[in-house]
Predict the 3D structure of the following.
Amino acid sequence: MRLGVFVQVPGHHVAGWRHPEATSHGWPNLGLMQRIARTAERGKFDMFFLGDGFATGYDEHPATIGKFEPLTLLSALAMTTSRLGLAATASTTYAEPYHVARAFASLDHLSAGRAAWNVVTTAYDKSAAVFGRQHPPHAERYAIAEEFVEACRRLWDSWDDDAFVPDKESGRFVRPGSLHVPHFEGKFFTVHGGLNVPRPPQGHPVLIQAGSSGPGQALAARIADIVFTAQNELAEAQAFYRSVKAQAAAFGRAPQQVLVMPGVMPVVGRSEGEARELFAELNRRIDTRQAFTVLSERLGTDMSRHPFDGPVPDLPQTENLKSRAALLLQMARREQLSLRELYYRVAAARGHLLLIGNPVQIADVLERWFLAGAADGFNVMPPFFPAQFDALVDLVLPILQERGLFRTEYAGATLRDCLGLCRPPLRDA
């Protein structure tokens, strides 16, 4: 089983920061990030995963109002960790391939081969304002993303692995013939020139892709090493898992080289009653404006206009998070949720798998999904930090290890080694 910790502080639950055991002072807080990374490495987690976004405002989720730039933070954490994978989100809609390729190659060198890039298209149109651009339609964003990733791959392959061999006697710094200048021309990007960073230790940083719509799945099947997805029902998760693996095979890829890792929010108590009371306490502290902002973003329309205790209305298709909106509406219909009940679900896990229970109950569900072919592992989303992540590592992880479902030691030096992923061969420019 592969495990990542999705670090969104002060917490994933919209009211997580208000819990007495949550650390929310002195924000942004590098010390807290270092503590989470140390705990993850102590638990032998595969990776420390950072989401990102550009918009801010009073009513945003507390984790998005103010935050570190991900690559800057991970570069700092590379200095205080040794085995933990370091995954950062970077947008293909609001960036340039050269900048992104250069930054992730640098992080891979700084961390000795532990970098991962979460490839996102940026779902929300409000992000466009800070760049002074028009937000592209959904299908175009995915076409841009595929071209963007291809340009980055060519840039990472600018140099042979053994290109840099400084020889003081001969005066030769790089081996002749080792530079392969990319000449890439696409609809959206053109790159003529090599990357001024040696080839990354992993060949290419690990690629993560989080889209679950049709275009998102197709992109993941073509380019992703890890697929981060939101699934909250076992049969649907199994269908998604089979679909992604089959599409990867159709593109000539080995299905085991594409790891599916759904998000999961575990609310951990020493007893089920304690966990349920903790969850109820979090819900009592919800700021209605922030929760409605999160719900409206996920569904692509202003939900505050609808009766709070009425049924979830039929909604037009959104150009933002298409797959997430569909998943939430499907969950609401399946479980006959009122708008208020859906609001509480989204304020907590935003459509990801929500588990509330004691350590054995949490471990049982993770084991069931893993063995049933619904997941290769999970991206853990604690409701608040650090206490709930500590509880997962100290109480749930030992159960998974005792059952032989999770490692007790790291399997290799690089993130690809630990994940069992092949190192990409050098391709011609």
